[in-house]
Inverse folding.
């Protein structure tokens, strides 16, 4: 799933933590906010597309596709896209957006993926890994379904930002959760993310059999200056998201190599 809005604007303690991250309960409101806001539509998605580069003809898995805006952009650039998400409500919105051009599957990324080894050239995971306490099983599956030389392009909450979401500050070197309320269109939803230090992120990629190609902290597109002048300044001077491109070694022949 993609991040809806700058969490600093919406952080609040939730009175009810019984059902966190329930996208089915706010799918419509989430998708509407995500469509044209600053950090998703004008910062995170353009950054993901820039990292993906020329995708014409490439088989791409959108892991945590949500309502499908990134899938649509990749499709429009000539990719053959498959989307998976755990939320039935979000996938219904994705189907409305994408028609029959993109295969969509209800899949929890903590489970085994319903695809053959080496089925994809690329996987995009847009602001999704920070929902997981343990990246290991998910990264192992993503590596399995990528061909040798395939890429995983992922964005997450920047660990330096996540570290600030508590007072007193948590142990930076520990994997810890934090909870907050997202509020948009008058609707509030309790959320839980997992934060981990940068070295734990890169270690997880290496353990899963990936090699690191790129770590990126992109600047916003200059066009954002006119559309969101205050937001442009913040994104130009403060950390927000962290982007990774990791690769399956070209010589890899299977998930156990």
């Amino acid at each position: 799933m993609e991040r809806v809005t700058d969490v600093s604007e919406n952080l609040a303690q939730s009175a009810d933590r019984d059902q966190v991250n329930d996208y089915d309960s706010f799918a419509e409101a989430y998708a509407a906010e995500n469509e044209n806001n600053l950090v998703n539509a004008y910062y995170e998605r353009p950054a993901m597309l820039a990292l993906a580069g020329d995708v014409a003809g490439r088989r791409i898995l959108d892991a945590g596709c949500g309502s499908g805006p990134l899938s649509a952009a990749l499709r429009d650039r000539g990719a053959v896209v498959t989307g998976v998400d755990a939320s039935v409500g979000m996938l219904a919105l994705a189907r409305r957006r994408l028609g029959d051009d993109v295969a969509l599957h209800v899949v929890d990324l903590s489970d085994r993926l319903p695809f053959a080894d080496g089925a994809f050239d690329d996987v995009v995971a847009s602001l999704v890994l920070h929902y997981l306490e343990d990246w290991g099983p998910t990264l192992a599956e993503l590596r399995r379904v990528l061909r040798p030389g395939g890429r995983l392009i992922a964005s997450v909450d920047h660990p330096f930002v996540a570290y600030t979401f508590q007072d007193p500050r948590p142990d930076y070197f520990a994997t810890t959760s934090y909870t907050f309320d997202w509020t948009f269109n008058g609707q509030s939803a309790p959320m839980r993310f997992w934060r981990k230090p940068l070295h734990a992120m890169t270690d997880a990629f290496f353990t899963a059999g990936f090699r690191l190609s790129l770590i990126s902290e992109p600047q916003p597109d200059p066009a954002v200056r006119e559309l969101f002048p205050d937001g442009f300044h913040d994104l130009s001077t403060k950390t927000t998201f962290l982007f990774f491109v990791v690769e399956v070694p070209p010589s890899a022949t299977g998930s156990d190599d």
About this structure: The chain has a mean pLDDT of 89.
